[in-house]
Amino acid sequence: MIRVSRVTTAVAAVLALALASPGAALAAPEPDPGRLSAPASAGLPDGWRTTGSGESAELVWRSPEKVPVGDAQVEFRSGDRLLGIPRPAVDGRTFRLPLDGVRLGSTDDLRVEAAGRRLDAAGAKAAARERRALDAASDDPSRLPRTATVNKVDPGVPGPFRTTSGEYSLPSVHLPGYDTDVEMKAVVVAPEDAPGSRPLALFLHGRHVTCFQGDDVTLEWPCPAGHEPVPSYRGYQHDQRLLASQGYVTVSISANAINAQDWQADDAGAQARSSLIRLHLAHWADWAADPSTAPDVVRRAPRADLGRVMLVGHSRGGEGADRAALDSLTPPPADEDGYHGETRWTIRGTVLIGPTIFGQNPAPDVPSVTILPGCDGDVIDLQGELYVDGTRGVSRGKALHSAVYMTGANHNFFNSEWTPGQATAPANDDFLYGGDEHDPLCSPGTATRLTAAQQQKAGSTYIAAAARLFVAGDDAARPLLDGSPVRAASAGPARVLTHAVGAARSGAFLPVPSATVGGGRLCAQVDPDPGASCLDPDLMTASPHFAQWRGVTPGKEPDRYALAMEWSRAGTATTLSPARPVSLSGARQLSLRVIVPPNTTGTELDVALTDTSGKRADLGRVTVDGLPGTSRTSSYWAREIRVPLTAETRERIDLGHVATLRLTPRTASGTAWLMDAHGWRPGTPVVEPARLARVDVGHLSVEEGDSGTRTYQVPVQVSGSGSGEVRLFVAEPGADRPVARTVRVRAGTRVDVPVSVEGNTRYGADDLHVVAVKSVRGAVVGSYLGGVTARNDDPQPEVTVTPVADQVTEGRPLVWRISLSAPADVVTWTDLELLPVSAGTELSTTDVPAAWLEETFGASPDPERPLSALSDVAVIMSEVPAGSLSIDVSVPTVTDGLSEDTESLRLRLWTYAPDGAAIEGPQFTGTVSDAA
What we know:
Layout: H1 11-19, E1 48-51, E2 58-62, E3 74-78, E4 81-84, E5 87-88, E6 94-98, E7 110-114, E8 117-118, H2 121-136, E9 163-173, E10 182-191, E11 198-204, E12 211-213, E13 216-218, E14 228-229, H3 237-245, E15 249-253, H4 256-261, H5 270-289, H6 296-300, E16 304-314, H7 316-329, E17 347-353, E18 368-373, H8 386-389, E19 401-407, H9 452-471, E20 495-501, E21 506-509, E22 516-518, E23 521-524, E24 561-567, E25 574-577, E26 589-595, E27 603-611, E28 616-624, E29 639-644, H10 647-652, E30 658-665, E31 670-680, E32 693-697, E33 699-703, E34 709-713, E35 716-720, E36 723-731, E37 739-746, E38 754-758, E39 767-777, E40 779-781, E41 785-791, E42 799-805, E43 807-809, E44 814-820, E45 828-835, E46 841-842, H11 850-857, E47 875-880, E48 886-891, E49 903-912, E50 918-929
Parallel strand pairs: 11-15, 11-16, 16-17, 17-18, 18-19, 32-40, 33-41, 43-50, 46-49
Antiparallel strand pairs: 1-2, 2-6, 3-4, 3-7, 5-6, 7-8, 9-10, 10-15, 12-13, 12-14, 19-20, 21-31, 22-25, 23-24, 24-31, 25-30, 26-29, 26-31, 27-28, 27-30, 32-35, 34-38, 36-37, 36-39, 39-41, 42-44, 44-48, 45-47, 45-49, 49-50
Helix pairs in contact: 3-9, 5-7
């Protein structure tokens, strides 16, 4: 009997299973899944089965096809409830979720999702039908207008310098939590004959396959024999060459070893990628101080100026770049970090391309540009928008945080090594992950879908715009990033829109519970209740602004709001009055971020302000168009619109004490959502990072004990400087959602997070008390996920089998009783393996009911064959429910009216140890005699 064992993983993996830390699509090698005895376990949908028992119990799903390796997390769900993140097998099709500590509940709506996209066959087909219906009723997205005004400065134009390139390889490094050392390999592209020290741009790729042999790809490290490494780090040389021609030294680093192992990290590798980035930067700081110690390619390049560094990260590399920016300002706990030296560099800004943000805690004081690919087929919810929205109110708000929405761009083609026709290894178009049915916006060959070359040129242009603004300090590049209605000529046909927060903005109208709303509705960005949520919950991936914190509190999250407006006649005003007056003194315009439905045009809104004395000023009328979108895109995205604050306005009202923002629609009907409004003026102020507290959540593992209740403290470290507020999410075992509370933190002090553990003498699963944290104001968060694991310390009950009816006549069932020596707090799974009989005639497929045969084995009676020959390993799976002592397992028989010799059935009991090892039990036999 072959049973796939549960592989015991590190604490981080246990946490990942509890609160769905982002997992992988392929992982380190596992045993072959073996041949299934049936397409599904009894009561489970096709493709699903359960294996093991107790601590080794697993829920297994096998995809009909390989699941492409990507950056979005693969999740098991029961309806809308998150079960956890499964561990993928090396075959790319089989995913296993240990059920230790997981409440399985109903199994009739099991789902597999990645960033909201259904992967299981039934869900994928239903989603495709819904998409076709929705798209048939939508307007043609390609007809929407594009931005016509060209910015005066075009960062996409190559500079005056010729370039030189080469690679370096240093000894591999050990990173905490990773069994295999991580490579230190990079490609350098630098300007030739550029005077003085030059700014440094460091690139980090995202999560992708690591090795290939012909058309075969895998996610292992080091590569198996005969396989070559996938050179993902070489995929940004088109960006590097542009920056190098403009005088930047550029380096793109490899992270294949992290990609192959980040499934076991509760943060999906963000801390490891940060450590890797800073280890490379430390070497560059050494080489700048003493070039004679540098590799040849670095010595041929101009000396790097470590005071002017920009990080560019793609997908999970984007989250790693953001974490590196944060860690460079406030170091992480030493036991979690792979770099322990001083910070000898200054990160002036980051560019994040289609990034993940599983932690949802962006660095607030480092300027950023987030590129959102409108046809992203991997991170389809465009969760990277939260690198903009998530910074509001956390710090001083002086750093510019920009979102660049690029219609027609997919996820992969920003990296040439992930692009078919350019890549060394097999590559594909990630938009096709969601199905190959035609999409009017994003299918290859449509008018709005960018070619790989067009997408790469547009990406390079906006990366260079960020460098020009953040590093070179050229404010003429700002309009390309800050929500101004201009485009870069070098971006070619790409439809690019931007909006931003921070920089020279002042004052804030935010839709929050403390504000008074009139005429509209304060809606929850993430809520399963259609009456409370901003969008229909079925449209959970339709808006980047409303991306769920899927790994912590999926489906519902407190204190994330927008202002919903819906009207059936013109003139129906909506008002927003903050709890305190807003100062717009010094602002030149009022900037609003407003969402309207995709593919809509001409939504008109009159904008007015009222001061605390009741005086009102009408600022003017704005027109808002929706983004091009289909049912497969995340296109409910806010357009930035501005109205002037004229001298007449300043005479009419007191802009230092504004009480109310008033929006009045002038179109006959429509819907819109206000994300926020700020005072705006041109310019990019110098950012001086605030002295903020930093919070890191750790993990504690304890024995449950035999009796009584013990209280433990979740290890929460507060470092940095000053004080602030964070929101704690505490999930108790078996709870559907965590309980949230806001707490005050101060550097160097303790955060009280008690957890109660009840002792008992019953065998059960480990209890996971998981804590997550998100910044509110005045604090940043590094390690956002931790808690207490109460380990089961009781022995597994012994399992025995006794006959209830093992000698019967045709038409009556054979019955055996499987018993436990003591009740358990978890389901105990057992298998009865069907063996060939040693003598006489074996019970056949025509001797049992056809319905039972189909339900148990997925087989039909014909052709007639012995039951033990149904498959290589034919088993009857059973389970003793939690709290029960026994279960009866029966094999029904039928009366066939034929005169036959006595037939028999031989079986063997299999049980499973806590570590998943199969335990062979006794053999036993039942006989069935002729009814006559």
